[in-house]
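Project standup — Tuesday

K.O.: blocked on the structure for the chain from last sprint. Re-posting the sequence here as requested.
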Amino acid sequence: MNLPKLRRVLTDPDEFISNRQLKALSLELLELIPMPGIGGSPLDSGDIMEVVLRAAVGTTSVHGVTTNTEETPNREPVMDWLHTLQKEPMLDAVNDVLATLAMSVLDRDRSRTVCIDFMDNPFHGYPENEDEFRRMQARDGTTKCHRYCTAFVIAQGKPLTLAVEPVDGEDSKADAVERVLARVELYPFEIDRILMDRAAYVGEVIGVLRAVAPPVFPVKTGKDSLREKLSVNASYMTEETICKGKEHEQTYPLAVDVTYHNGDRGKSGLKQTGYAAYGLEDRTPAQVAAIYDKRSRIEKSYEKFREARAVTTTPSPTIRLFYVGVGFLLEQLWIVIQWAVLAAPRRGGRVLPVEFTFGDAFLHGIEGVLDDELGWKEKHRTNGVGLPAGCDHGLG
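H.V.: unblocked you, prediction finished:
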């Protein structure tokens, strides 16, 4: 992909990188996303992307940006342009940019452990179709969400996003995982194993994962035979069958790892965890658990992503997907710049700069530049009257 500004910064950085450069690099990525737009409009995609970028870095809405700035169009023409986004070309572009960023810092000759996960983005508003959203545990004042399937690798001390796919209303987990893995298989590196959470514990999903690489995931404990195998005092390796006698029957190597709670979450005593451990039959349960624990960094990535998620109540799943893609692109750009340009080289690796945080340094820096360029309002007209008579008691 043609990213001349980013290429120059990554290959020949100046002594310092400015907030204005960070904003320019971010827009360079976003402007690769095709937006047909409206014929005859005085706007162009750059005008729209600036508004979207400001909404993302400030975790606010397009309406909030256009209302509080002097140099942006009104909300209506911006949203009209956003409604011209076409789902598949937009999604392909987001994934292509993610891949370009990831491969700028990944070794092509090294095999990788890929992490698969499902992420829920809370839904506020009224959908065009009731099948557009999924249900989740209550969060942010709602139980409705749009769901996305994502793939990561842990590299350079951070989770790099490889691919993202929406989980539409009629999609099964297996459908979504299959689409994500199809994108990951286009990468030039080999996949040595796949880590996933308990959502993998479905016969059909296991089959999809195994077709690409050996999966490792914790098992669900609802089955009597499985509970019996987990009711032990010492770690051991065995095997178990899921969906026995059914279409998607799978027999998997089971690693039963026994540890102590040690007061974790107020619990004490033995803690027994079972892992489906394909390809790790020669490892100990403790080694299987250590391999799976690498996946825990994904939650940190989601915390970062949510710092760059534009707020919206639009019923359009395409626009919501676009905002999700923008959040992941900004996080990926931050990781790449942090490691490639700002980390201090040293023997055995690079020292990441602790001061270049995603929120306070990267996002807030871009926000400040956009506030200047878009004319963020610095004063607001008052009523010239203040409190009505009798309402100022206690103010001294």
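K.O.: great, moving the ticket to review. DSSP finds 13 helices and eleven strands in the chain. The longest helix spans residues 317-342.
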